[in-house]
Amino acid sequence: MSETTDIPAPTGFIQTHRWSILLALLVALILLDGFEDRVHWADTAGLWGLSLLFLGVVGATGRNTVLRFVIGVPVLIWIALIVLNEFAGVRVDGSLAILAGILLFGSMLTSFWQLIGPVHSEYERLSSGVFGYLLMAMLWGVIYWRIEAVHPGSFNLPGDVGDERAPFVYFSMITMTTVGYGEMTPAASLPRVLTGLQAIVGTMFVAIFIGRIVGRLK
User: Fold this and answer.
1) Cα separation of 200 and 195, whole Å?
2) Which among 122, 128, 164 is positioned nearest to 146, based on CA atoms?
3) What's the whole-model pTM score?
């Protein structure tokens, strides 16, 4: 895989490998979600980990001041809500979920820009694409999780699934990859439409992503 000369290469390890680092952090957070029902601090660690992730995306916007402001303000609100939740005892679960969805969507769009915008390295373009793909899965998982929380019974769930977020992120992943093991299924109209839409978007993204990478390597 060759280096590009679209833009000058940044200096410093973090700047040079920022999307690879963000991808590694995102994978760690997804894995941490799997311990949410076993480790009492996993949820808190996940919230602060997401804060680092969002801050990293703000830094990855480069010199785009407008984009940095658009993403940076919600990130500051997110951190303030976490502080209220963790240290002041204020329950803001609903607000955090909504803001998480907004920030995941914004971060996903920022990473997708790397597929068509100038980059200093094709490795970073690849990392940003995978990062955006996993963010898409997490975003849909959060949406499914909140739908079930607001309207219980929207999904047919196994007996061991409680109010954790991880099973819905898992369901989102197998839906987006069109695997569909069948132990979780949508039971209402809205989640059925969303799962169908996600399967289409996920398939299209893979095709576009592979085509874009192959095209850049020619």
Assistant:
1) 9
2) 164
3) 0.84
